[in-house]
Amino acid sequence: MVFKQVGDGRPYPDHDRTGRQWAEIPPRPVRLDQLITTKNVLDLHTVLATDSTFYGDLFPHVISWRGELYLEDGLHRALRAALQQRTVLHVRVLELD
Questions:
Q1: Which of 7, 27, 36, 43 has the smallest CB count inside 10 Å?
Q2: For the segment 20-40, what is each residue's pLDDT rounded down to a tens digit?
Q3: Among residues 93, 84, 83, which one has the least CA distance to residue 35?
Q4: Which domains does the chain have, with CATH numbers?
């Protein structure tokens, strides 16, 4: 199993966090099998692209809510890490609890 669960949508409240505000959160390691995805569809071109993080945050965005970790942004990076047989991903975690 790669992820704890494959979700469809965001069950947590909207946080209105900007890219600059996300950048203020230091990245930390999280196991892939602790993450619940908020998307159930991905684009293979994005997964296989060598420059997929060129225009965005290097670290995926995770929301901690009600004891669960939701992968809000970075599904493609997380899947790429899993394909490279890595079990841990460095992410930015926003605590909404």
A1: 43
A2: 999 999 999 999 999 999 988
A3: 93
A4: 5-95 (3.90.1530.10)
